[in-house]
Every structure is written in structure tokens, then in C-alpha cells.
Fold:
Amino acid sequence: MTELVFELPDGARVPVAVKYLLNGGYAGRSQEDVAAHVAELAELGVPAPSTTPCLYPVAPYLAQQTTTVPVQHGKTSGEAEWALVVTDDDVLLTVACDHTDRELEVHGVAWSKQAAPDVLGTRAWRLSSVEDRSDELTLTAWADDEVIQRGTLAELLPPSYWIEELRARGLLVPGTVLLSGTIPMLPGVNQFARSWRVELASPEDSLSLAYSTSPLPEPVG
Structure:
């Protein structure tokens, strides 16, 4: 079982054995904007979901705190997200990046989520310490040092929505990790890059992660 360790602002270190890993999708707070995004993706060959928002179960071992993501080709990219981490006695909020195989995505979004890890930060906040102002928190992503995403958590369904979804599905248990879904890409950016960095920030503090992609050897056969 994959074990992650998160450092809290008070210096405490919290180990979490990942039992369930879940990816939110099409999780914008404005479902009108989500519908427009679904239509845009359909033009690129990405199949439309049967309902929104979506929740994709992912293999728990794909939750990683890593600085290197192996990839099979150049058409993969990350997505700036926040993540909920359920511990034995609390819920944490951290920064995350859902690395996705875009070539596989046209065959099935759920399949594409299994092709690369969900990268999580090594620092976290207690959700209770920031929840009342979570809409003010900002998410920023850089690909090869170019800003490609920038927004606030107000653009996404709030942590409270996903807490209730997890509770209703019997998944609000220690070891559950849920990624939020992502904010829009800025117009005209190149999302295919060798290095990725994501920051989740409040006026007082910030959580960040960074990793590079590493091409796998060419297959034989």
C-alpha cells in the first residue's frame, strides 16, 4: 500500500496509507462553463461524460510524491488541482497535479487517468484552517516555466461538496485521497512540456510541487 507523508504548518508529519484515490472531473462550479468545455473536447475526439461532475477511481499506487514522471510519448500533460487527504482524525488540503495521457484520453478519460501518477505535494494544511476562505486560495501551474493555468478555488466545486459526496458513497475514510478537477488553461499556451510546477497559495503561505517528465525507452515488439 502506498504511504504518503505530509508536513503541516506546525511541523507535525502525518503519514497516510492510500486506500482510495479518486479524481474529480468536469468539476467547475459553473456547470454552463463545464458544458461548453465538454463540447470543445468533443471536437478533439474526447468522449463526453454521461453526467457531470465526474468521479474517476484511480489505482491507489498512482498517488505519488515524486519529482519524476515516466512517460511513453510527448502528448502528456499535467493539471493544476487541490487534493483532499483523509487521515485517521482529520482532513488535509494539499496541492496536486493530475498527469494525463492526452492520446489515450480520446479513447476514454478514465483510462487516461491510469496512465500516469497523481503527483501530490509534501506539505499540507488542515482543511478546517482554510475552509472558510477556500474560495480565495489561488492555483497556478507552470509548464517549462510558462504560466499555463491561474485561477482561484472559487472556479471549482468546493471541498465541502466533495466531502459530502465521499460521505454519501462510504468513502470518507482514512486513506482516501481525492483530486479536485482542474481550472481552465490560459488561451494559446503549450501544455506539452518537460517540467511542471503547481502552487496552491493563500496570502500567508503556499504549497507547491514540481516534477519533470522522463521518456521511457522505445518498446521492443
About this structure: The domain at 3-215 is CATH 3.90.850.10 (Fumarylacetoacetate hydrolase; domain 2). The mean pLDDT is 92. The radius of gyration is 16 Å. The chain has five helices and 16 strands.
